[in-house]
Amino acid sequence: MSTIEERVKKIVAEQLGVKEEEVTNSASFVEDLGADSLDTVELVMALEEEFETEIPDEEAEKITTVQEAINYVNAHQK
Amino acid sequence: MSLEGKVALVTGASRGIGQAIAHALAAQGAIVVGTATSDAGAASIAEKLSAAGCQGTGMKLDVRDPASVSEVLERIASEYAAPAILVNNAGITADNLLMRMKDDEWDDVISTNLGSVYRLSKAVLRGMTKARWGRIICISSVVAGMGNGGQSNYAAAKAGMEGFARALAREVGSRGITVNAVAPGFIDTDMTRALNDNQRSVMLEQIPLGRLGQAEEIAAVVAFLAGEPAGYITGATIPVNGGMFMG
Fold it and tell me: What pTM, to 2 d.p., does this model score?
Protein backbone atom coordinates (compact mmCIF):
# COMPACT_ATOMS: atom_id res chain seq x y z
CA MET A 1 0.00 0.00 0.00
CA SER A 2 1.43 3.34 -1.07
CA THR A 3 1.51 6.24 1.36
CA ILE A 4 -0.82 9.20 0.93
CA GLU A 5 2.12 11.28 -0.25
CA GLU A 6 2.96 8.78 -2.98
CA ARG A 7 -0.63 8.49 -4.10
CA VAL A 8 -1.08 12.28 -4.26
CA LYS A 9 2.13 12.69 -6.26
CA LYS A 10 1.16 9.97 -8.69
CA ILE A 11 -2.21 11.65 -9.36
CA VAL A 12 -0.59 15.05 -9.80
CA ALA A 13 1.89 13.60 -12.31
CA GLU A 14 -0.86 11.82 -14.24
CA GLN A 15 -3.30 14.73 -14.29
CA LEU A 16 -0.79 17.39 -15.23
CA GLY A 17 1.25 15.21 -17.55
CA VAL A 18 4.55 15.85 -15.76
CA LYS A 19 7.30 13.48 -14.61
CA GLU A 20 6.96 12.17 -11.06
CA GLU A 21 10.37 13.57 -10.08
CA GLU A 22 9.14 17.08 -10.93
CA VAL A 23 6.37 16.68 -8.39
CA THR A 24 8.21 17.89 -5.31
CA ASN A 25 6.36 18.72 -2.12
CA SER A 26 6.81 22.44 -2.55
CA ALA A 27 5.84 22.47 -6.23
CA SER A 28 3.00 24.83 -7.13
CA PHE A 29 0.55 23.36 -9.63
CA VAL A 30 0.26 26.56 -11.65
CA GLU A 31 3.71 28.13 -11.29
CA ASP A 32 5.95 25.05 -11.29
CA LEU A 33 3.94 22.35 -13.01
CA GLY A 34 2.27 24.40 -15.73
CA ALA A 35 -1.33 23.78 -14.73
CA ASP A 36 -4.08 26.09 -15.98
CA SER A 37 -7.26 26.79 -14.02
CA LEU A 38 -9.15 23.90 -15.61
CA ASP A 39 -6.25 21.52 -14.81
CA THR A 40 -6.49 22.44 -11.14
CA VAL A 41 -10.24 21.75 -11.10
CA GLU A 42 -9.66 18.36 -12.70
CA LEU A 43 -6.87 17.62 -10.25
CA VAL A 44 -9.19 18.22 -7.33
CA MET A 45 -11.77 15.93 -8.97
CA ALA A 46 -9.15 13.21 -9.31
CA LEU A 47 -8.12 13.59 -5.65
CA GLU A 48 -11.77 13.36 -4.61
CA GLU A 49 -12.10 10.07 -6.44
CA GLU A 50 -8.82 8.57 -5.25
CA PHE A 51 -9.51 9.36 -1.62
CA GLU A 52 -13.29 8.98 -1.75
CA THR A 53 -13.95 12.37 -0.28
CA GLU A 54 -15.66 15.57 -1.33
CA ILE A 55 -13.55 18.70 -1.30
CA PRO A 56 -15.72 21.83 -0.97
CA ASP A 57 -14.97 24.61 -3.47
CA GLU A 58 -13.70 27.00 -0.81
CA GLU A 59 -11.23 24.36 0.42
CA ALA A 60 -10.25 23.37 -3.12
CA GLU A 61 -9.20 26.93 -3.89
CA LYS A 62 -6.62 26.78 -1.10
CA ILE A 63 -4.93 23.68 -2.48
CA THR A 64 -2.28 25.16 -4.74
CA THR A 65 0.80 23.04 -4.01
CA VAL A 66 1.59 19.36 -3.71
CA GLN A 67 2.15 19.71 0.04
CA GLU A 68 -1.20 21.45 0.52
CA ALA A 69 -2.91 18.56 -1.25
CA ILE A 70 -1.11 16.03 0.97
CA ASN A 71 -2.04 18.03 4.08
CA TYR A 72 -5.68 18.22 3.05
CA VAL A 73 -5.94 14.49 2.47
CA ASN A 74 -4.14 13.70 5.73
CA ALA A 75 -6.48 15.95 7.67
CA HIS A 76 -9.62 14.49 6.09
CA GLN A 77 -8.84 10.78 5.91
CA LYS A 78 -11.72 8.69 7.16
CA MET B 1 -22.55 3.47 -36.60
CA SER B 2 -20.70 6.53 -35.45
CA LEU B 3 -22.22 7.02 -31.99
CA GLU B 4 -22.11 3.34 -31.05
CA GLY B 5 -22.14 2.84 -27.28
CA LYS B 6 -22.17 6.55 -26.41
CA VAL B 7 -24.77 7.74 -23.93
CA ALA B 8 -26.78 10.74 -25.14
CA LEU B 9 -29.00 12.80 -22.86
CA VAL B 10 -31.76 14.74 -24.64
CA THR B 11 -34.00 17.02 -22.59
CA GLY B 12 -37.59 17.65 -23.66
CA ALA B 13 -37.68 14.51 -25.79
CA SER B 14 -41.35 13.53 -25.57
CA ARG B 15 -42.40 15.32 -28.76
CA GLY B 16 -41.47 17.68 -31.56
CA ILE B 17 -37.83 18.47 -32.20
CA GLY B 18 -36.57 16.70 -29.06
CA GLN B 19 -38.23 13.46 -30.04
CA ALA B 20 -36.75 13.63 -33.53
CA ILE B 21 -33.30 14.30 -32.04
CA ALA B 22 -33.58 11.34 -29.68
CA HIS B 23 -34.42 9.05 -32.59
CA ALA B 24 -31.73 10.46 -34.88
CA LEU B 25 -29.04 9.90 -32.24
CA ALA B 26 -30.34 6.42 -31.46
CA ALA B 27 -30.29 5.60 -35.19
CA GLN B 28 -26.54 6.36 -35.08
CA GLY B 29 -26.12 3.79 -32.32
CA ALA B 30 -26.25 6.05 -29.26
CA ILE B 31 -27.91 4.90 -26.05
CA VAL B 32 -30.44 7.69 -25.63
CA VAL B 33 -31.95 8.94 -22.41
CA GLY B 34 -34.80 11.28 -23.26
CA THR B 35 -36.40 13.36 -20.54
CA ALA B 36 -39.94 14.63 -20.05
CA THR B 37 -41.67 16.57 -17.30
CA SER B 38 -44.09 13.74 -16.43
CA ASP B 39 -43.90 10.00 -15.81
CA ALA B 40 -46.32 9.45 -18.69
CA GLY B 41 -44.06 11.43 -20.99
CA ALA B 42 -41.02 9.44 -19.87
CA ALA B 43 -42.86 6.16 -20.44
CA SER B 44 -43.90 7.24 -23.92
CA ILE B 45 -40.28 8.12 -24.80
CA ALA B 46 -39.15 4.67 -23.66
CA GLU B 47 -41.94 2.98 -25.64
CA LYS B 48 -41.19 4.84 -28.86
CA LEU B 49 -37.46 4.16 -28.63
CA SER B 50 -38.06 0.49 -28.03
CA ALA B 51 -40.66 0.32 -30.86
CA ALA B 52 -38.00 1.76 -33.19
CA GLY B 53 -35.56 -0.91 -32.06
CA CYS B 54 -33.35 1.66 -30.35
CA GLN B 55 -31.40 1.53 -27.11
CA GLY B 56 -32.30 3.86 -24.30
CA THR B 57 -35.16 5.00 -22.13
CA GLY B 58 -37.19 7.91 -20.89
CA MET B 59 -36.77 9.59 -17.51
CA LYS B 60 -38.77 12.22 -15.68
CA LEU B 61 -36.83 15.44 -15.19
CA ASP B 62 -37.67 18.95 -14.05
CA VAL B 63 -34.87 20.99 -15.64
CA ARG B 64 -35.56 23.88 -13.25
CA ASP B 65 -34.78 21.78 -10.19
CA PRO B 66 -31.11 21.08 -9.31
CA ALA B 67 -32.12 18.06 -7.17
CA SER B 68 -34.02 16.52 -10.06
CA VAL B 69 -31.02 17.08 -12.35
CA SER B 70 -28.58 15.34 -10.02
CA GLU B 71 -31.01 12.49 -9.43
CA VAL B 72 -31.36 11.83 -13.17
CA LEU B 73 -27.61 12.10 -13.75
CA GLU B 74 -26.96 9.55 -11.02
CA ARG B 75 -29.52 7.21 -12.51
CA ILE B 76 -27.97 7.49 -15.97
CA ALA B 77 -24.49 6.83 -14.60
CA SER B 78 -25.62 3.76 -12.68
CA GLU B 79 -27.84 2.28 -15.41
CA TYR B 80 -25.64 3.15 -18.41
CA ALA B 81 -22.58 5.43 -18.19
CA ALA B 82 -21.87 9.14 -17.91
CA PRO B 83 -23.36 11.00 -20.90
CA ALA B 84 -20.93 11.77 -23.73
CA ILE B 85 -23.54 13.82 -25.57
CA LEU B 86 -25.92 16.38 -24.07
CA VAL B 87 -28.67 18.02 -26.09
CA ASN B 88 -30.24 20.94 -24.26
CA ASN B 89 -33.58 21.00 -25.98
CA ALA B 90 -36.20 21.47 -23.23
CA GLY B 91 -37.96 24.76 -23.65
CA ILE B 92 -41.21 26.62 -23.18
CA THR B 93 -42.76 29.83 -24.38
CA ALA B 94 -44.80 32.34 -22.43
CA ASP B 95 -45.29 35.09 -25.00
CA ASN B 96 -46.42 38.53 -24.02
CA LEU B 97 -45.72 42.13 -24.82
CA LEU B 98 -43.10 43.30 -22.39
CA MET B 99 -45.35 45.98 -20.96
CA ARG B 100 -47.81 43.24 -20.01
CA MET B 101 -45.32 40.53 -19.10
CA LYS B 102 -45.60 39.03 -15.62
CA ASP B 103 -42.57 38.23 -13.50
CA ASP B 104 -43.37 34.53 -13.61
CA GLU B 105 -43.59 34.56 -17.42
CA TRP B 106 -40.09 36.00 -17.50
CA ASP B 107 -38.67 33.79 -14.73
CA ASP B 108 -40.19 30.52 -15.98
CA VAL B 109 -38.88 30.97 -19.51
CA ILE B 110 -35.40 32.01 -18.36
CA SER B 111 -35.13 29.18 -15.83
CA THR B 112 -36.53 26.45 -18.09
CA ASN B 113 -34.78 27.48 -21.30
CA LEU B 114 -31.50 28.96 -20.05
CA GLY B 115 -31.06 27.94 -16.40
CA SER B 116 -31.47 24.35 -17.55
CA VAL B 117 -28.51 24.72 -19.89
CA TYR B 118 -26.34 25.85 -16.98
CA ARG B 119 -27.49 23.03 -14.69
CA LEU B 120 -27.33 20.19 -17.21
CA SER B 121 -24.06 21.22 -18.84
CA LYS B 122 -22.36 21.58 -15.47
CA ALA B 123 -23.62 18.17 -14.44
CA VAL B 124 -22.20 16.34 -17.47
CA LEU B 125 -18.82 18.10 -17.66
CA ARG B 126 -17.04 15.98 -15.07
CA GLY B 127 -17.62 12.83 -17.10
CA MET B 128 -16.74 14.54 -20.35
CA THR B 129 -13.49 16.07 -19.10
CA LYS B 130 -12.41 12.69 -17.76
CA ALA B 131 -13.26 11.04 -21.05
CA ARG B 132 -11.53 13.82 -22.98
CA TRP B 133 -14.51 13.75 -25.32
CA GLY B 134 -17.91 15.38 -25.23
CA ARG B 135 -20.59 17.11 -27.24
CA ILE B 136 -22.90 19.74 -25.82
CA ILE B 137 -25.56 20.96 -28.24
CA CYS B 138 -28.06 23.67 -27.37
CA ILE B 139 -31.28 24.08 -29.31
CA SER B 140 -31.65 27.82 -29.76
CA SER B 141 -34.05 29.59 -32.10
CA VAL B 142 -34.03 31.95 -35.07
CA VAL B 143 -35.51 34.58 -32.75
CA ALA B 144 -32.23 34.72 -30.80
CA GLY B 145 -30.67 36.50 -33.76
CA MET B 146 -33.69 38.04 -35.41
CA GLY B 147 -35.84 39.06 -32.47
CA ASN B 148 -39.60 38.67 -32.36
CA GLY B 149 -42.16 40.99 -30.81
CA GLY B 150 -43.89 39.37 -27.85
CA GLN B 151 -40.99 37.04 -27.14
CA SER B 152 -38.48 39.17 -25.24
CA ASN B 153 -38.19 36.46 -22.57
CA TYR B 154 -37.80 33.61 -25.09
CA ALA B 155 -35.38 35.53 -27.33
CA ALA B 156 -33.28 36.56 -24.31
CA ALA B 157 -33.03 32.94 -23.15
CA LYS B 158 -32.17 31.66 -26.62
CA ALA B 159 -29.56 34.36 -27.27
CA GLY B 160 -28.19 33.55 -23.82
CA MET B 161 -27.71 29.93 -24.84
CA GLU B 162 -25.64 30.95 -27.83
CA GLY B 163 -23.38 33.14 -25.71
CA PHE B 164 -23.11 30.34 -23.19
CA ALA B 165 -22.06 27.94 -25.96
CA ARG B 166 -19.30 30.29 -27.12
CA ALA B 167 -17.93 30.85 -23.61
CA LEU B 168 -18.00 27.20 -22.62
CA ALA B 169 -16.49 26.19 -25.96
CA ARG B 170 -13.42 28.23 -25.00
CA GLU B 171 -13.33 26.78 -21.49
CA VAL B 172 -13.36 23.12 -22.38
CA GLY B 173 -12.01 22.97 -25.92
CA SER B 174 -8.67 21.65 -24.67
CA ARG B 175 -10.50 18.60 -23.31
CA GLY B 176 -11.93 17.49 -26.64
CA ILE B 177 -15.39 18.81 -25.79
CA THR B 178 -17.31 20.86 -28.33
CA VAL B 179 -20.19 23.17 -27.48
CA ASN B 180 -22.50 24.37 -30.21
CA ALA B 181 -26.00 25.65 -30.82
CA VAL B 182 -28.53 24.90 -33.52
CA ALA B 183 -31.03 27.66 -34.28
CA PRO B 184 -34.21 26.35 -35.91
CA GLY B 185 -36.59 28.63 -37.77
CA PHE B 186 -40.28 27.74 -38.02
CA ILE B 187 -40.59 23.99 -37.65
CA ASP B 188 -43.79 22.01 -38.06
CA THR B 189 -44.48 21.12 -34.40
CA ASP B 190 -47.29 21.58 -31.88
CA MET B 191 -45.84 25.01 -31.12
CA THR B 192 -46.34 26.27 -34.69
CA ARG B 193 -49.53 24.28 -35.36
CA ALA B 194 -51.18 26.55 -32.80
CA LEU B 195 -50.90 29.48 -35.24
CA ASN B 196 -53.94 30.52 -37.33
CA ASP B 197 -53.96 30.52 -41.16
CA ASN B 198 -53.28 34.23 -41.40
CA GLN B 199 -50.25 34.06 -39.07
CA ARG B 200 -49.07 31.06 -41.04
CA SER B 201 -49.22 32.69 -44.46
CA VAL B 202 -47.50 35.85 -43.21
CA MET B 203 -44.77 33.63 -41.81
CA LEU B 204 -44.33 31.60 -44.99
CA GLU B 205 -43.82 34.77 -47.02
CA GLN B 206 -40.65 35.42 -45.04
CA ILE B 207 -39.17 32.01 -45.76
CA PRO B 208 -37.27 31.72 -49.06
CA LEU B 209 -37.81 27.96 -49.13
CA GLY B 210 -41.55 28.59 -48.82
CA ARG B 211 -42.36 25.92 -46.26
CA LEU B 212 -41.99 25.07 -42.60
CA GLY B 213 -39.08 22.88 -41.57
CA GLN B 214 -39.43 19.33 -40.33
CA ALA B 215 -38.22 18.27 -36.90
CA GLU B 216 -36.08 15.62 -38.63
CA GLU B 217 -34.22 18.40 -40.46
CA ILE B 218 -33.11 19.82 -37.12
CA ALA B 219 -32.32 16.37 -35.77
CA ALA B 220 -30.05 15.63 -38.73
CA VAL B 221 -27.89 18.67 -37.92
CA VAL B 222 -27.74 17.73 -34.23
CA ALA B 223 -26.74 14.16 -35.12
CA PHE B 224 -23.98 15.54 -37.35
CA LEU B 225 -22.68 17.85 -34.58
CA ALA B 226 -22.72 14.92 -32.15
CA GLY B 227 -20.55 12.77 -34.38
CA GLU B 228 -16.82 12.49 -34.92
CA PRO B 229 -16.79 14.30 -38.32
CA ALA B 230 -17.98 17.53 -36.62
CA GLY B 231 -15.04 17.50 -34.21
CA TYR B 232 -13.59 20.79 -35.47
CA ILE B 233 -16.81 22.79 -35.02
CA THR B 234 -17.16 24.51 -31.65
CA GLY B 235 -18.77 27.68 -30.34
CA ALA B 236 -20.87 27.83 -33.50
CA THR B 237 -24.56 28.46 -33.99
CA ILE B 238 -25.89 26.62 -37.02
CA PRO B 239 -29.01 28.19 -38.54
CA VAL B 240 -31.62 25.80 -39.92
CA ASN B 241 -34.40 28.12 -40.98
CA GLY B 242 -35.20 27.82 -44.67
CA GLY B 243 -33.37 31.10 -45.24
CA MET B 244 -35.73 33.28 -43.21
CA PHE B 245 -32.84 34.87 -41.36
CA MET B 246 -29.33 34.96 -42.74
CA GLY B 247 -27.01 36.45 -40.14
Answer: 0.93
